[in-house]
User: Which sequence fits this backbone?
């Protein structure tokens, strides 16, 4: 049975993180009684101790980003990821106590703020990877992403063949519809899940129902020159089919379009889930490098002016 990194080895790393937090808090509370000359801050022995621990954790957590692709066992990756999450969260307490709640417009506070930004972005990453993989699995319904794309291509080929048997005009419209079908695109398009062609296919179905009702009621046929949108033309072509063969082909084509619409929706949703999971890395990784730069500057400046 798969074990989540959050509960790895019965919350082993959560216990370590809690122990570190408790020890840090006890030392912080005890410090004024032991040293009455100055309050807790980064320049006391407690400040240096907590600062050293925090810096070592940050460097170790950054090393995880380098090492994670080298793990050859899932259990090792789970363990490191669990430690990454819980020890990273413990930095909120450890680093705050290190500062002694003394902040200012300087590189020391900048390093602290960047650390919080990295941790917050990491929290979002935990949420995303806990939620969206399951949604992706449900959405794919046992198929792979490439499998869904291949099925869309097969439906397109079959739709072209069927439309060619109806009339050349329908063949042209189906080809134009295929060319307009897009998946992926910009980051914004992936996250928003734009579905213009899905809306167009919905319009086909609605127009088809209306036009079939007109044909049944014996109302005048339409003028193709006044049709307007390509998708509306397709629907009217379908609804105007009078012979038995054309009706069967029209129904077949509509079934293909409906199945394609469902697949395109699932592919777009899959891409959207993947984009939402990955977008946090565009913040987490650059913020991490900025934190490292600020942290090194913070450490060097402390030793220079010590």
Assistant:
């Amino acid at each position: 049975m798969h074990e989540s990194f959050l509960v790895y080895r019965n919350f082993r790393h959560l216990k370590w993180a809690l122990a570190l937090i408790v020890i840090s808090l006890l030392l912080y509370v005890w410090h004024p009684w032991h040293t009455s000359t100055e309050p807790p801050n980064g320049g006391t022995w407690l400040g240096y101790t907590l600062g050293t621990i925090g810096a070592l954790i940050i460097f170790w957590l950054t090393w995880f980003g380098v090492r994670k692709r080298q793990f050859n066992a899932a259990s090792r990756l789970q363990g490191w990821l669990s430690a990454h999450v819980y020890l990273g969260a413990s930095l909120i307490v450890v680093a705050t106590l290190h500062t002694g709640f003394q902040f200012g417009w300087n590189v020391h506070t900048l390093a602290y703020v960047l650390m919080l930004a990295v941790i917050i972005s990491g929290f979002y990453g935990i949420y995303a990877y806990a939620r969206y993989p399951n949604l992706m699995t449900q959405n794919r319904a046992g198929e792979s992403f490439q499998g869904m794309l291949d099925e869309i291509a097969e439906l397109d080929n079959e739709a072209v063949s069927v439309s060619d048997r109806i009339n050349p005009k329908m063949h042209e419209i189906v080809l134009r519809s295929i060319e307009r079908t897009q998946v992926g695109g910009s980051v914004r398009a992936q996250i928003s899940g734009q579905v213009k062609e899905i809306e167009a296919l919905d319009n086909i179905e609605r127009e088809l129902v209306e036009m079939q009702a007109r044909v049944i009621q014996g109302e005048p046929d339409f003028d193709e020159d006044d049709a307007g949108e390509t998708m509306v033309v397709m629907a009217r072509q379908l609804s105007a089919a009078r012979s038995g063969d054309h009706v069967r082909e029209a129904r077949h084509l509509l079934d293909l379009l409906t199945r394609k619409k469902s697949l395109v929706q699932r592919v777009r949703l899959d891409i959207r889930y993947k984009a939402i999971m990955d977008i946090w890395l565009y913040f987490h990784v650059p913020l991490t490098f900025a934190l490292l730069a600020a942290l090194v500057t913070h450490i060097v400046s402390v030793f220079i002016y010590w």
Q: What stands out?
A: Residues 28 and 100 are 9 Å apart (CA to CA). Residues 220-228 have pLDDT under 50 and may be disordered.
